[in-house]
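Today's session is about reading a structure prediction critically. Students often jump straight to the picture, but the first step is always the sequence itself: look for stretches that repeat, for charged clusters, for runs of hydrophobic residues. Only then move on to the predicted structure, which in these notes is written as discrete structure tokens rather than atom positions. Here is the chain we will use throughout the hour.
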Amino acid sequence: MNHFQYRDGRLFAEDVAIAEIAAAVGTPFYCYSTATLTRHYEAMASALARVQGRICYAVKANSNQAVIRTLANLGAGADVVSEGEARRAIAAGVPASDIVFSGVGKTRAEMRFAINAGIGQFNVESVGELDVLNQVAIELNQTATVVFRVNPDVDAQTHEKISTGRKEDKFGVDIDLAPELFQRATSMTGIDPVGLAVHIGSQLTTLDPFREAFTRVAGMVETLRAAGHIVTRLDLGGGLGIVYDGEVPPEPDDYAAVVAETVGDLGVELTFEPGRVLVGNAGILVTSVIQVKETATKRFVVVDAAMNDFIRPTLYDAVHAAAPVNENPGSDTQTAEIVGPVCETGDILASDVQLPALTENDLLYLKSAGAYGAVMASSYNSRQLIPEIMVNHAEFSIIRPRPSFDALLSLDHMPNWL
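Below is the predicted structure for this chain, in token form.
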């Protein structure tokens, strides 16, 4: 459930009319609902309570500090994949000890920052990374707490570009190498190896891949313990899908049941890294019609949002439902393609959408845009980044303003010979 609903034909975010926000800040913009963020977090936290799991929100899904703080205030830690994300999480109020540092390419500088900040856990993905982290920790006279991200060679049955648990993917180490890594780590003075991590992909809509991956990890825990290693933590990642276009993803309670079934008897501390499932349906993208262009074969609705603002449809062939902000259920509709003004054929936000007659400045919105939307935006075509708005009951706040063109141009610096 989300808190974007029509009232008397007008779309509201909680108790704020979307048209009122558009009049105040202009379009396009992202709008997030505090009530939806809260509802989704509490549903996940309640389900995972049966396995005593802790939630570390995957910041890459939406890194606005207001979103992070909203979730942190509910009890979430953070899962980060860069120094920048770690800094955002700390600035938003997440204790460093509640942060998990994931990612396949941590630099020495990032490792130094994370160790000095007191980051609670490193998810190590290669022998080379382990060796470098040990060197950095020794240089700082510190010890890094480590879990090894294993690759269980499980197909997540999701989009090719967001599947991360197969042998051909760049993530993790072959699960069969875990005993060798643990043994190597136990001789390192800068490393404290405590467990394993696994993350097989994003937007999973069936539980079978989770069950297969978690079962393999459970078997490896037993193997490690039989070899004399102490295993106290499992990081089971994220990846639970949401509804975009008729999907029927598993409920959090069903997901938790699989966790209990596969690893519930291991006596380990469990960490989870949900991202999309917490924020995806908590956000929408609002845009205005520039013009309607009719050709011999198509009806194009050209809007002021574009692929640089929301790249998921172009990058992942993602389908996002679209509708008018001002509902007119009695109007006849026609098939249309919603496109932006960027000079790319791939600048398509939604295809085969049934829309009523539209004119300049009419408002449309794309649903389920809270994850991997603003966080992946760019200023391609020298377009301004668009605002992010957060709603809480009858209030709204600009949580990232639209930069001016002067601010955009000021990022460039002329060399002294020009």
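Discussion point for the tutorial: The domain at 4-32+280-409 is CATH 2.40.37.10 (Lyase, Ornithine Decarboxylase; Chain A, domain 1).
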